[in-house]
User: Fold this.
Amino acid sequence: MIAFVGGFIFNHFNFPLAFMLGAIAATMVVAMTGSLPIARPHMSVVTPMRASLGVLLGSAITPDLLDRIGALGAAAAFVPVFVLISTLVGMVYYRRLAGFPRDEAFFSAVPGGLHIMTLYAEEAGVDIRRVALAHALRITFVVLMAPFAVGFLTTMPVINVIDASVSITEVPLWDLLLLLGAGVVGWAIGRRTGMPGAQMIGPMLASSALHIAGITAAKPPVELIILSQVIIGANIGARYVGETLAIVRQAIVLAFGYVAITLAIATAFAGTLHLLFDLPVITGMLSFAPGGMSEIGLIALALGLDVGFVATIQVSRSITIAFFAPVAYRRIRSFLKE
Assistant:
């Protein structure tokens, strides 16, 4: 209910991605103040919502993606370079500015997912409290800052995501069943194959196949889109349960600075792709932005960008980091432990 209230307030004031950003803001404040007893939504609730967003994003993918195959290949090739530069700059940032030990600075700087980076840090014997907080705040700030950064940098009109669909009463039953099938089958295939971000990417691929083949043109109903944004927003905001503003004050400042740095690096890569392949800078920036795949995909959809392009590069970043982080740590472990 807290997340819904935040979403409706943000929607009233016409914020971009109002229901997700409002849910994040409201639950984050309540979580840190401890004014009400809340907990993170259970994964049995969050996972279907991610799958629903995957189906929604898949419905926006068109065959036009193939027209940008050169830019797509170049962007994928740039991903390891982006990860390396972001990690090196971030290590210096957290080491020199925050005084983190080298190993904590390393795991805080790698622009990967919250769960995988805290898992790697824990396996390496690193104190994960500041690492987990750094990544949680990074993802939160990327999601919060990216829509406003885009609005500041461009006059591109923001499309309200909930306007992209219709009420559940207006979607034919057969189309609803097809979309449900895409979500379930895509999720199952994603899990079976070990696909990164399987909860979202699997349904997105299944949905895109249905839409590109012309089998259906329907999108998930607007009620489900709102519910998905609210629950995913609540899941991000409620990560701060048990944390107080006094504890996270320094972490907030550090995370804000790190996100600004990585978004600047992402924009530099986007500018290169624009010069080489005429790819819109905003598309490139979101493709490299180190946030959650579901959330970045929603931002791309809200801006009317090439969702398939953005999602492909986001998956490339996840795969790169899954291999890069443990290998890099083993190679420089002796240096990090000094």
